[in-house]
Amino acid sequence: MSDQIKWGILGPGRIAHQFARDIRLVKEARLWAVASRQKERAREFAQRYTIPKAYGSYRELVEDEAIDIVYIATPHGRHYEDIKLCLNHNKAVLCEKSFTLNARQAQEVINLARTNGLFLMEAMWTRFLPITQKLRKLLKQNVIGRLHMLSADLGFPFPFDLQSRLFNPVLGGGALLDVGVYPVSLSQWFLGTPREMRSLAVMGESGVDEQAGMVFSYANGVMAHLFTSIRSSTPSQAVFMGDKGHLIVQAPLYRPSGIVIKLENGREEYLKAPLKGNGFNYEISEATRCLLQGQLQSSIMPWQDTTDVMKIMDGLRALWGFSYPQESKGI
Length: 331
Ligand SMILES: NC(=O)c1ccc[n+]([C@@H]2O[C@H](COP(=O)([O-])OP(=O)(O)OC[C@H]3O[C@@H](n4cnc5c(N)ncnc54)[C@H](OP(=O)(O)O)[C@@H]3O)[C@@H](O)[C@H]2O)c1
Prior knowledge:
Helix 5 (103-116) packs antiparallel against helix 9 (303-320). This protein folds into 2 domains: 5-126 and 279-300, Rossmann fold, CATH 3.40.50; 130-274, Dihydrodipicolinate Reductase, domain 2, CATH 3.30.360. By secondary structure, it is α/β, with parallel strands linked by helices. The strands form 2 sheets. The chain has an 8-stranded mixed β-sheet with strand order 8-9-10-7-11-12-13-14. It has a 6-stranded parallel β-sheet with strand order 3-2-1-4-5-6, sandwiched between helices. Strand 8 and strand 9 form a beta hairpin. The protein is globular. Helix content is 32%, strand content 24%. NADP nicotinamide-adenine-dinucleotide phosphate binds next to helix 1.
């Protein structure tokens, strides 16, 4: 492997544009190719970001021997197939959230990455931002005393559209897998896997979850209350509550703008972390660094955490009695 990592993109949709802008900030990474199911779309995207290769099918891209790693930016209903396609063609993978539809799919592709000796990571970009790394340090230092509660949410009002991946069950639609994964991943990162979960969801016209409330309990009486929605605009923040004060992670939850610490003794502190680019560059840097150092997984978003997040979301969907059409075929 050379000292510059060559990247390819599968699925030049909304989020792929953000990725293509931010990768320029990572000097060890080079955007080498893009693939769309329509050649013309790939060509336009390649032109816009000066990408050398544009492919009219995902298979052609994974057959390009120059590519080291593929960023998968397709709807989550097909991440499982797309990850397998890449790993079976000797490509490392950075795959958008939600990583797969369920924990069974996640475990299968992780096993495949391990067997093939390839790097694989979920693109939960929030974990790599300087501000969230700072948050982790603050909580480890017990700035708010002993942590007892977490509240976190993410939601946006999206107009109902059956064509959109958000409402289409086959594409992995629903609030939980699209936006709810952020508060769920945050809770998993700081509190681990809940001992017990309670949850209610409102299912919409197309049969997917459009709003949900979740209450998790952990050992030692720690609790988390989370909510998510694709119907309503939510505050999009997190509050960590301890016995000496609370800490507010300011909106938007996926890329926090600051941290406010409010202590019972009246002390207040506001922290802001400088951000380069849109913030995707931090996860790109981490994946590139792991590849250059021959690591198969990242310690910030390890395989176990991805599987645990998927298991929590499987558990929530089981409470609602909701499964995706593919799951009835055991996929
Ligand atoms: N990290 C973040 O902040 C963030 C934000 C938004 C979304 N995401 C995640 O990124 C992924 C893509 O989201 P997006 O908002 O970019 O979606 P999008 O705009 O709909 O783009 C998805 C792309 O996937 C390809 N695709 C392949 N099969 C498809 C199908 N059956 N239906 C529709 N598109 C299909 C399409 O490209 P071609 O047809 O050209 O191949 C399309 O452009 C999702 O998993 C989502 O959760 C992450």
